[in-house]
Amino acid sequence: MICGIDVGSILIKAIVLDEKNSNDIVLQEIGKSIGNPEESVTTLINNIRKKLRLKKRDLQIAFTGRNCENLTMNPKIAELNCLAEGIHTSSDHNRIIVDIGGFTNKIIKIDETGRIMDYLMNNICSSGSGVFISLICKSLGIDIMEIDTYAFKSEHPHPISSQCSIFAETEVIYLMNEGKQIEDIVAGACKSITGRLIPLILKIGREINQVLMLTGGLAKSEFIKQDLMEQLHIEVKNPSIDPIFTCAYGCARSLQNTSKEEI
Amino acid sequence: MLYAGIDIGSLTGKAVIMKDDDLISSSIIQVKRNPVLTSELVYTDALSKTGFTPDEIDYCVGTGYGRERIPYINKSLSEISCHGRGAFFLNNAIRSIIDVGGQDCKVISIDEYGELVDFRMNEKCAAGTGRYLEIMADLLGLALPELGAISLKSKTPISLSSECSIYAQSEVLNYISRKIKKADIAAGINHAMAQRVHKMTEKINLQPKFTITGGVAKNVGVVKALERLMKVEFQSLSIDSQLIGALGAAIFAKSYW
Fold this sequence. Notes:
heterodimer; A: alpha/beta; Nucleotidyltransferase, domain 5; 2 domains; 5-stranded mixed sheet; 4-stranded mixed sheet; 8 helices; 9 strands; B: alpha/beta
């Protein structure tokens, strides 16, 4: 079996593929990456082996993600390559990937062979990434999985003026005290995310008139998807696999490719 | 004559009462639900120590992030001018003021008359503001005032690579989980904070002498690190570093009366 582990800034995502059985996804596992990733990754691997009753040599593993740098385990594959491979191997004719990660957003343009042609990534500031919304949800006392339920009810989305995730967290408490509706704040927060993404997308994919593939933790939000579609006049879709596992999936597929080459 | 200066910041409210040229009372409180309430409580507290009533105050100037919401002031002024004026009043050799507040950071240059020459301000990003230190102290299980003192015990400070408070938070959590000494983590945090402020001081032409004001001036670790980075020595002021904005406001009150 082949396993790709994406050690993200907040979550660890692992996916196991059966290479003898047309790369079927055998297992998907999620763990927390905050604190000591090395420990969390080890626990996750042990769980996987226990669940699938696999001996060490029967599970080939590769690592990727923002937090995998400090792992002592190997091999490691660059995150952007994994995302590209994940989309290329799971979905047809898609050339632009928009990944909303825990701490960073990435826009990647690939060619028809899955090769990266261009990319943009903000890894200096967490604004507009998953943690931005997650801190706002924490302040509002709602679950991040509920953002669509609230945002779709909003008639007048209230813009969040803070760019900084930390300041946004306190701004929404202030907005609540001012009597603003939760749904308007949530919709405003989602619009902050798309507002940060759109200029990046346009920079990379201005001339491209194709389906945009949304991946990462927030990719499942219909509200964010619809808002991107309305503003960009382009089709926005999720990959056929669970979007949060795209990078882990690509990591497993990349590992498989390199193993084949070695043989 | 009686004058008052009120400084409503993001985390604390400050009030200063002056009789002619003397500071006779002051108060610092944590912010309440809204700026109106904060401004009323801090004013009442400062006045109660003097025996005067609000009616007896001849002129009152408000400043700080919540200044527009203070109901009883005669005039409001930007905190940039007030910090400059307050620091200059206490020591007229000062030409550069670095004010690090709860949610912002200001670098202010004044001339030999105490007039504003130039300034830079960061209120967009939590890194380099008091908020950053607050988050980090919280992670370490320390009270904010402890962060400075404990860092002085460090012999091998950690180094934080990220600027973003969120990224740095996750770096710190990693150090904590690896059981690195609190003193070493605190020293790394204070250094990162000082680096960020240092970058801002490089954006304008600053002349000696220098002083540092605001809540962060109470963190000796940050102050020492910043002194090393800027290669200067800060002048210490005779009153609480958090009161300088309110003091400046009271001095303006006198000139407007």
